[in-house]
Write a structure and sequence with these properties.
The chain is of the alpha/beta class and 422 residues long. The protein has helices at 73-84, 113-122, 143-148, 165-169, 180-189, 218-225, 232-236, 270-285, 300-306, 310-334, 399-409; strands spanning 2-19, 27-41, 62-68, 97-102, 152-161, 194-198, 227-229, 246-249, 291-298, 337-342, 346-347, 351-353, 362-366, 376-377, 381-386, 395-398. The strands form three sheets. A ten-stranded mixed beta sheet has the order 7-8-6-5-9-3-10-15-4-16, with helices on both faces. It has a four-stranded mixed beta sheet with strand order 1-2-13-12, covered by helices on one side. A two-stranded antiparallel ribbon has the order 11-14.
């Protein structure tokens, strides 16, 4: 197999200087370089090393998994510096256990979100674009399905469409992440109790302004059999005593669409949605569920890398880190919740560089994969953990290890069946 290695770069375009925008007067220069590159043959064994995990006596009752799509150390470092300078600390810096995660897919050294999220949700490598099935297209039981049979209630949250690759990997089984008719139908048929994000068009037929080609009006089916909320106010005012699964679809497409800025105040942040999922999980625990699993994705960190937009990246990292702070505080207070923060891959090849004068109070941000259209890279991503079982998220892990480490943190020795049919 051949892989392209970037060897060096020449500055090509200066996009702008952000001066005085944050707390200090330091300048930030964003650049996109022209690159030298070469293609090299590599050895690519399909056999993934198996990591051994500690079976701790103290088990987690709940798990919150936060995924920053497209986020690696450079995005975290860049946000920290932009927020408060090199000596500041963000929520992700407060976790006691850290490691690195290798992200390659079954069929390529560079993963997409579908393959990497499937590794997180099933513990198995698969091909890029596949969701919830292995490289031979065999069905893989995902984490929400497994936990449902052991009496846990699950929630999926995203700032993209809820049918997008990462959330879909925790609920769907299709050979292409673009099969949104199938994905949304499987979401509707699942036992996931709370689904929050964008994507109303995915649930509507083309005849009603949606994108479904099967002519099925899933939005009407949700209204007739489940609970639908469509604005931030409806989410905040939701009556938790109502039985039923909750579908929060706050935008026709993804949240915070740049073309619909007037709608942003009506859409919840990642923290808003996470708090709702925690509160709704408590409702189900009062009905007999023994714990909860929540996956919350900061989807658009990735998109900021794809379009090489530093201010977009700052905004999405701020939204994600706010949800991380909320999850960590919940875990500290509850003492029975495992919180994991990681990413599916890095996007954009972001570098933080000197502009050649090491005594200047400035930093240069360079996106290094493509001009105006960034790509995924193969660099590892970080993982942070707090709570029962957190010690297993250290050292070097494969992305399939995240699934096994989550299961090792929970008490799932006996099957009690689904708990959400109330």
């Amino acid at each position: 197999m051949k892989i392209k290695l970037v060897l060096g770069g020449i500055l090509l375009v200066v996009l702008g200087v952000i001066s005085g925008f944050y707390a200090s007067t330091s300048s930030v220069v964003q650049t996109i370089p022209e690159k030298d590159s070469t293609v090299e043959d590599i050895s690519f064994s399909k056999l993934v090393p198996v990591k051994t995990f500690n079976q701790s006596e103290s088990k987690a009752k709940n798990v919150i998994l936060l995924i920053g799509d497209g986020m690696s150390i450079s995005q975290i470092t860049g946000y920290r510096i932009l927020k408060g300078g090199p000596n500041s600390r963000i929520a992700m810096d407060k976790f006691p256990y850290t490691g690195i995660v290798l992200t390659h897919s079954h069929d390529a050294p560079i993963t997409d979100s579908a393959s990497s999220a499937t590794a997180y949700s099933t513990g198995s490598k698969t091909n890029n674009r596949y969701l919830g099935m292995d490289s031979d297209k065999n069905y893989l039981e995902n984490l929400t399905e497994k936990l449902d049979q052991h009496g846990f209630v699950s929630s999926l949250i995203a700032t993209s469409e809820i049918s997008h690759a990462t959330p879909a990997a925790f609920v769907a089984h299709v050979e292409s992440r673009w099969n949104t008719d199938e994905i949304s139908s499987q979401i509707f048929d699942s036992n996931v109790a709370v689904l929050l994000g964008g994507g109303r068009k995915i649930f509507l037929p083309e005849s009603l302004g949606g994108v479904r080609k099967d002519n099925r009006n899933l939005l009407e089916e949700i209204k007739s059999s489940e609970l639908l909320v469509t604005t931030k106010n409806e989410l905040n005012e939701f009556n938790m005593d109502q039985p039923g699964r909750v579908f929060g679809l706050f935008s026709d497409d993804h949240l915070r669409d740049i073309e619909t800025p007037d709608n942003h105040s009506k859409e919840p942040s990642l923290s808003n949605m996470l708090q709702f999922a925690i509160d709704r999980s408590a409702y189900y625990q009062g009905k007999g569920c023994k714990g909860f699993f929540i996956m919350a994705e900061g989807s658009q960190v990735d998109w900021a890398g794809h379009v090489n937009n530093l201010d977009y990246l700052r905004r999405e990292m701020e939204d994600l880190d706010g949800a991380v702070a909320l999850a960590l505080e919940h875990a500290i207070q509850s003492k029975d919740t495992l919180v994991i923060v990681t990413a599916d891959h890095e996007t954009g090849g972001l570098l933080l560089e000197s502009d050649g004068i090491y005594t200047k109070d400035s930093i240069k941000f360079s996106f290094n994969t493509a001009i105006g259209q960034g790509n995924h890279t193969g660099v590892p991503v970080p993982v942070y953990a707090y709570g029962p079982g957190a010690e297993n998220f250290t050292g070097t892990l494969d992305n399939t290890d995240i699934y096994r480490a989550i299961l090792a943190s929970l008490e799932i020795s006996s099957s009690s069946g689904s708990c959400i049919k109330y």
